[in-house]
Amino acid sequence: MKDLFLEKLGLYLINKKNRYIIFFTIIFLFAASFTISYMKYMKIKAAEDKFIDISLFANDTLIKRKNLKDFINSKVNSDSNYLEVLEKLNLKQSTVYFLNSTKTHIAFENNSSLENRLNFLTSKENKINFKEEKFNSTEFIKETFQKLISKVEVDESDLIKILSIIENESENKPQLIITDFKIDKANSSSFLLDLNILKREFYKKL
């Protein structure tokens, strides 16, 4: 009787142990299957994300190339002498007008300081004048580095005019890139300007 009881107890424990083994085996297989599926999903998602990134990059590159092509084509046969627009500017005009009005007053007749100041502002000494320092040239493009021969005295309105001429998008303008722009305070209404420009001309359309 006792032996029969022990036999049944042993079978029960073995069967119970088997149930645990089967249970944990199922859990393990489920977890392994889930992990493998998740890894495959993440790999596919990463591939999709990479494809999207490549597509966006390719599209962005095409847009940039088109914009660059359109820009270059718009600059072909531009005016090589465009910087003469800057060189023809009359600077400090409000001061010149004031000095011309002042010198006619009896109190300033034959005032040498006033005359010298007026002569300087209206002379070539205070005109924008570039010299070509060096250039690079190929079949398609020519780059020249333009440097002011000497600093010029300007006021705020002159600075606005100069920058608008350089940065405007007129069809006959070559590509102009400011490489150096320095202003030093001369007095309450004047600045000394030093300016270097890269002028880029294109010869052929893309």
Give an account of the 3D structure:
The chain is an alpha+beta fold. The chain has two domains: about 1-75; about 75-90 and about 125-200, 2-Layer Sandwich (Alpha-Beta Plaits), CATH 3.30.70.60. It has five helices and five strands; from the N terminus they run H-H-H-H-E-E-E-H-E-E. It has helices spanning about 1-75, 85, 95-100, 110-120, 155-165; strands at about 130-135, 140-150, 150-155, 175-185, 190-200. Strands 1, 2, 3, 4 and 5 form a five-stranded antiparallel beta sheet that branches. The N and C termini lie far apart (about 105 Å).
| Helicity, as a percent range | 40-55%
Separation of the first and last Cα atoms: 104 Å
Q: What's the helix-strand series?
A: HHHHEEEHEE
Mind telling me the C-alpha Rg?
A: 40 Å
CATH top level of the largest domain is Alpha Beta
Which architecture of the largest domain per CATH? 2-Layer Sandwich
Name given to the CATH homologous superfamily of the largest domain: Ribosomal protein S6/Translation elongation factor EF1B
The number of helical runs is 5
Output the structural class. Answer: alpha+beta
| Strand proportion | 15-25%
Question: What's the total number of strands?
Answer: 5
Low-confidence stretches: 54-59
